[in-house]
Design a protein that fits this description.
By secondary structure, the protein is α/β, with parallel strands linked by helices. The protein has helices spanning about 10-25, 45-65, 65-75, 75-90, 90-95, 105-110, 115-125, 145-150, 150-165, 170-175, 190-195, 200-205, 210-220, 230-240, 255-265, 275-285, 325-340, 360-375, 380-390, and strands spanning about 100-105, 130-135, 140, 245-250, 270-275, 295-300, 310-315, 345-350, 380, 395-405, 410-415. Strands 4, 5, 6, 7, 8, 9, 10 and 11 form an eight-stranded mixed β-sheet that branches. A three-stranded antiparallel β-sheet has the order 1-3-2. Helix 1 packs antiparallel against helix 2 (about 45-65). The structure holds S-adenosylmethionine. Pfam families: Dimerisation (PF08100), Methyltransf_2 (PF00891).
């Protein structure tokens, strides 16, 4: 295993074997050129990819040495500084999307910023293969830079480089004042301190800062296309659910998951429950052909669960990771009170590994910090999920775990005893 060795020769052998396995199990070799991301679904390719990334990172740690490793982390936020500047200057939108290069002077003129500033940003981004300098002073898109400019990914990047990047520096103060325990109050977060409000993130963006709310809704839509959030998993429990099942997507955003599920599962009826502003943006974008199968309902999940009775599957994707335990228990107990023995809760979230180290799911670690900064919340291990579910209502029973391939996302299927 790449994580166990410091031997460069052994690592190079692992890399060479993994490259062969990878290339023989993916439809096309990877490229830096702008191209739609190709999801890796083959089991051998998934394993080879994991081995490759871990082995390559180990080589970088060994050859780079401890100073470079630690300084890389301590100053890692300047990667975000560079992406933030690119986002604000709209550089990605001003570079030709067909992959042809643009001269620095033209890019600067189109973006309305001095060449000298763009050069500094490009120097930082091209280090990570985000944009490429094709000849001195000429820049073209790579796959990574293209993503920054595509509508929903732009919103997702904006969410991270704007409200999260602004909030993160406050996290130590929030924790220090509580002896470094995370407060169980979603209104006393690094986010609420940075934005000087006594509200949780959602209360702020859907009331006080609606443009930020609209951007967040679009950003969530982008997460269904991202490799680390394996939407495919949600279809599996739904496809094996009894006929006549209704999907209630609790906090289902603008309906992207419900729409995808309705398109995939014939005759499935879906109700997306949301805060008023989100429900109305969702209704505006609902495809005509799904209007008889997908509806939006305004509902505050802390206040109650209005839909009950037989055959209801309650889907909560990326909801409970947004809230400290007491708030999660409230949401779950309202649902438990509406359930009968034929209903299920599908908790669609990360299921963190107990062990740690260089082969850990990096996206899950970042998301755990995201939740800490914005919500005083967290990603959870299987044991933490079990404790939370039982703590919400003694009658709730974990019936099955559906795990995505190649990352730590999954679905916890919960019934009522
Ligand atoms: C992280 S997003 C997840 C959205 C969607 N489930 C997905 O997976 O993309 C959390 C969602 O919870 C919704 N939400 C937050 N507080 C809520 C509340 N009190 N009642 C209902 N929905 C709420 C937000 O509007 C947001 O759409």
């Amino acid at each position: 295993m790449a994580t166990k060795t410091e031997d460069l020769t052994e690592l190079s052998n692992i890399i060479s074997t993994s490259v062969k396995n990878y290339l023989s199990h993916v439809p096309t070799p990877p490229t830096l050129r702008p191209a739609p991301p190709v999801p890796v679904t083959d089991e051998v390719a998934i394993q080879a990819r994991k081995q490759l990334l871990v082995a390559c990172r180990r080589v970088v740690s060994l050859v780079g040495g401890p100073m470079e490793t630690v300084m890389g982390m301590a100053m890692g936020f300047h990667d975000t500084t560079a992406v933030r500047l690119a986002y604000d200057m709209k550089i990605a939108q001003n570079v030709p999307l067909d992959g042809s290069p643009i001269a620095l002077a033209e890019l600067a003129a189109k973006s309305g910023v001095p060449e000298e500033t763009i050069v500094r940003v490009m120097r930082a981004l091209t280090l990570n293969d985000v944009f490429v300098e094709t000849a001195p002073g000429y820049f073209a898109h790579t796959g990574g830079s293209t993503l920054i400019g595509t509508p929903q990914m732009e919103a997702l990047v904006g969410h991270y480089v704007d409200e999260t990047f602004t909030s993160a520096p406050h996290v130590s103060d929030v924790l220090r004042e509580n002896n470094f325990a995370v407060p169980e109050d979603g209104r006393k977060t690094a986010f609420s301190r940075a934005f000087n409000v006594n509200k949780n993130f959602f209360e702020y963006i859907f009331v006080d800062n609606k443009p930020m709310g609209t951007r967040f809704n679009q950003a969530m839509k982008a997460t269904i296309a991202r490799g680390s959030f394996n939407l495919v998993a949600v279809y599996e429990p739904l496809l094996s659910a009894p006929k006549g099942t209704t999907l209630v997507d609790v906090g289902g955003g603008i309906g992207h998951v419900a729409i995808a599920a309705a398109q995939k599962v014939p005759k499935l009826k879906c109700v997306v429950q949301e805060i008023g502003m989100v429900a109305s943006e969702g209704l505006d974008g609902l495809p005509q052909e799904l209007k008889d199968r997908v509806e939006f309902q305004e509902n505050d999940f802390f206040e109650g669960q209005p839909i009950g009775g037989p055959g209801v599957y309650y889907h909560l994707r990326h909801i409970l990771h947004d809230h400290p335990d007491p708030a999660c228990k409230k949401i779950l107990s309202h649902i438990a009170n509406a359930m009968d023995s034929s209903s299920r809760i599908l908790i669609d979230e990360c299921i963190l590994d107990k062990s740690m180290g260089p082969d850990y799911d990096r996206a899950a670690v970042k998301m755990d910090f995201q939740m800490l900064v914005m919500c005083n919340a967290k990603e959870r291990t299987e044991a933490q999920w079990a404790e939370l579910i039982k703590g919400a209502d003694e009658r709730l029973v974990v019936e099955r775990l559906w795990r995505a391939k190649g990352n730590s996302t999954g679905i916890i299927e919960v019934g009522l005893a």
